[in-house]
Each structure stands twice: as C-alpha cells, then as structure tokens.
Amino acid sequence: MVTFPMLTVASTNKVFLTRKCVVCSLVSSRSRTSAFLGKKQKNRSKVVYQYNNLPDPNDPNFEEGEFLPRKLTYMPPGLKFGLPKKRSRTIKEWLTLKPEIDDTEEWTETPCYPPLFDDSQADSEMKRKRLSWYETIKQLPTFESKFFEITNKVPHQSIMLKSWALNYDYLDMYQDLTRTHLIRGQLPQSYDTLNVDKYVELLKSPILNAVRYHLFDANRKFHKEKRGVYFSSEKEIIMHNNSINNLLQEINIICQKVLGDENKHLLNAQVDYTSDVRSWWWKNLPPPTLRNYFKLDPLPNVNQAMQFQGEAAVQLRSDQPLLPIVSFDDPLCQAAEVPVYPKNPKKSGWPMRRQYLQTTPGFWDLGDYKYDFPLMAYLSRTPIKLREFMVGRSYPDEADFIDAMAIMHGFGWLNGISGMHGFTPYEEITYPFTTHLVISDGQFWSFFVYQLNTHSFHSDVDKNDRRNLCWSSGEMKLFESFENDEFVGVNDDAIKYLVKLLLSSPQPCENTVLRPYLSQDTRKEEDVLMVRNYLRR
Asked: Where in the cell is it found (predicted)?
C-alpha cells in the first residue's frame, strides 16, 4: 500500500476528497457459487471494482465534468439471465393471539380468597399444577371421561397385585397397601339379630346335593384321587377350579330361588359369572430402587401405582347400597390398628410392569347408573391348591392366606365400584361402600364383610386417617367327610352365615348424594363410543 498526497479516492457511489489518498490494487470478489447452475456456470466471471485516481478539485485545470465517478462495475455477458429472481412470498400465520375474556364479577357479596399453598417445598410448583389437574378431572361429567383423562396420558410403572400370591406370610403387606383393619372371629353385631333357622332347613338339602354332584359324582375318579393331594399338572388345576366355580354358581342360584320370594333384593339382583375385576390406586411407599449409597439420609417415599387383577366366580349387584356398619366418625374407623409394611412390594417379589391403568369392577359402565352397588361376591379356594402345585409344598398359613385374599379382593372390587360413582383416586369417597364376600371350595367356608372408608392414598390428597374394615368369621367346615355316599358331620352354622349375608338387604339413602361428582353427559355419540372403545380395548 502506497500513500500519495493530494489525491482523490472514488468508491462505488461516493467520492472522497482528501489531502492524502490511498491507492489500492484491483480488488476482486465472488458471489455465491450456488446461485449459478447449469450452463450459466461457465458465464460466471469476476466482478472487478476499479478504484481510479480522480483529478484534484484544487488544481487550476480542474473541470466540473471530471469530478463524476466512473462506473466501477460491469456485468459479464450471460450473467444477467442467470441471477435468481427475487420473488415475493406470503408467510402464513402460525400464531393467533386472542384476548381472554374473564366473565367473573369483580365484586362479590362474600370474599373469595385463593387457597393457601406452601411454596417452601422443592416440588411446590409441580404440586400446584397437579392439584389444578385434579380439579379439572373432578369437573368432568362421567366416569368414562374421568378415567380416560387420567389413563390416556402415559403408562405407569405399576405393582401387579392379585387376590393371592405365591409368597408366605404377606397378610400384613396387603393390610398396609389397602389400609385395612382386620377383625377376626366375628361378623358385625347387626348380623347376629337375624333369625334364619327356617331358611336353613330349606337350603340344607339342595346345597348338599349340589356339593355331592360337583365334587363327587361328576368326574368321580378325578376328585377321588386328587382331593387333598398335590396336583400334577395345570390342566388338573383348571378342571378343579371350573368345578368349584360351577358349584358356587349353582349354590347362588339355589339361594336366589329359595329366598327370592320373600327378599326382593335377591330376586332383582344382577348376577355376573366369572367376572374380571380390575382397579388401581396410589400408595405412598419407599422407592423400589436400591439404597442411596451417596447420602446418609434414606430416599424419600414415592407415590407408587398399584394395579389389582382378580376374578370372582359369582358377583351380585343391586340398585341400592348396603347400609354401612360404622360411620366415618366411629373410633374403629378413625384409629384402628393397621400393620406397617416397611418395604416396597417389588423388593418382596411382586412384579412391576409398565402399563396403562385399568378399572373394570366386573361389569361395564353404560351410563344408566343401574345396579352398580355391590351386594355379594363368591370366590374359589383353588389358589391354595395352585400355590401348593407351583411351590411344591404347603404352608401352615391357610387362615392368613384366605384373609389376605378377602382383603385384597374386597378393596379392589369396591375401589372399582367407587370409581363408577365418580370417585377417582384423586377424590375421596363421601360415604362408605359395603359388601359381602364368601370364599369356599364346597367343604371349607369363610365369610367376610368389607367396608370401604377411604381409597385416596396419594400424598397430594391423603388428608384423613380413615381405616377400611374387614370382619372375618373364620374358617368352618360344611361337612367332615363324604363316606358311602353320605355326608358325615354336617355343620349348619356354615349355611346360617351364608343366609345371614344374603338376607342383609340394601336400603335407599335419602340424605346422601350417591354420585356427587357426576353430571349429565353432553358429549356427542362419536366421542362416547371413542372413549368407551378406548377403555375396553
């Protein structure tokens, strides 16, 4: 670069007059190569910007015409038609802002304050969003729309529970998962006042004849060899379970025919055979992971999803609820003892599966709100034989096994039925649900009364100390043995307990709103069918 005094430098569109001028060499620039394609590529050439020295205006020989700058660029031949054309493009609108119209009045007669919220917790903002979502679910009109909103989001890691398990001594765990207080050796006092002697004589002979046919006459060789002995194949267990289910179904038919004339609630009851019962809930438990090796403090509890799957041989449903045994304010409901299980069920062998949560209490909801209250359920004792076959030995915990079976099935069934009435696991029930349970194989009988007082165990909504209650009669034999086509040692008390449960009739609740969170369904028929097919898939 060389500096000369009193020179003028001309740029592309301006002329700068200075005492000293910088004279530069020829500068070349290239435009984007991607703009020229095909044959026009060969016509591409350099565009040269020429900086020429202009005359000095102070020179006495300077003329005005010489001050005009020369054209510094030129267009190479063929390049004119190769340049891309600038086209106008219309950009579509992708965001539309509309002002939100608030219809609430600015002034009210009574002050309305927002709920107090503790922002000191780490997940306070997420909890605020969850509580808002719970209120949205609460306002939905039907059971199907509520559970569709809950279950169609994402699958959950769920502990898979059945009414029985292969493990030994898990009664305390089932009581803790369902928050159930067990009362052994007696039924509620209200059942002791029922006089059922006249019905026992009417039912004794038909029930024994049904037991004789299903357990000893049909498949006589099979039952003679396998009764009280280990099963050798899964096929034999299925045959035995089918025989017990058929027996319980026939006993229920006999009871309905004999007792139905004087007890209309039995004659009008809806009956479900081999019904599939499923329900889910949340339980605040220790995490299913390993211990925290990096911190001295233990890991905090988490809200674990629990999925129950069971089967009942027979289910009876009525159009009115059974009267509760105790009220919510009773000390037995508020402060009864419930065992505490310190571990997550996964660590004790219960499987965990990632799946969508399901609720089907043995029947489908049709939106008509008819015959959706529990009355009685018959369960088979075959799982005891099944555990012996799968484990290869028997355990001395048959009483605990049967009690745990009744607790889990009673809670799972009533939890699903409460969902039919609009009480999701995020809304606490407003009145108790009561039902009866019978577990039998024809010879051994156990009778239970279960009352559901709470089912919301999620840490966000668990704000009460209610306990669920289960009364157990204990195990009793209908007969001691069957010899020479005769029953030996027939026990009438087993039939008495069965009749007492059946004669407990439902009563209308005039002062109780049975479905406080359900309203009229205003959805289109297409939406109803879509949600119904999704929940039944």
From this structure: Mitochondrion
- Look at the block and give the residue holding tokens 């009739």: 505
Q: How far is CA 140 from the centre of its chain?
A: 16
Cα gap 43→203, rounded to integer Å: 109
Backbone angles phi, psi at 384, to 5 degrees: -65, -45
| β strands within 26-179, DSSP E | 27-29, 47-49, 53-54, 156-161
**φ and ψ of 268, to 5 deg:** -95, 0
Tokens of 36: 């020229």
pTM: 0.77
Tell me the CA distances in angstroms from 146 to 128, 135, 280, 458, one per residue in order. 20, 11, 14, 17
Task: List the chain domain ranges.
Answer: 2-67, 133-324+352-535
Identify the residue whose tokens are 């007696």.
186
- Would you state the torsion angle of the CA atoms of residues 330, 505, 266, 256, taken in this order, to the nearest 10 degrees? 90
Query: Side-chain half-sphere of 256: how many Cα atoms within 13 Å?
Result: 19
Tell me the pLDDT of the chain averaged across its residues.
Answer: 82
pLDDT tens digits, residue range 339-397?
999 889 998 889 999 999 999 999 987 777 889 999 999 999 999 988 888 888 888 88
Contact between 339 and 172 under an 8 Å Cβ cutoff? The reply is: yes
Q: What is the pLDDT of residues 85-138, one digit of tens each?
A: 666 667 777 777 777 777 777 777 888 787 777 777 777 888 888 999 999 999
In angstroms, the first-to-last Cα distance of the chain is 83
By the 8 A CB rule, do 299 and 287 touch? yes
Minimal CA–CA distance to 255: which of 321, 320, 207?
A: 207
**Angle at alpha carbon of residue 153, lines to 352 and 359, rounded to 5°:** 60
Rounded to whole angstroms, the Cα distance separating 457 from 464 reads 9
Structure tokens at 407: 């607790």
Q: Give the side-chain half-sphere CA count within 13 A for 36.
A: 17
Q: What are phi and psi of 439, to 5 degrees?
A: -120, 120
Of 350, 358, 413, nearest in space to 161 by CA: 350
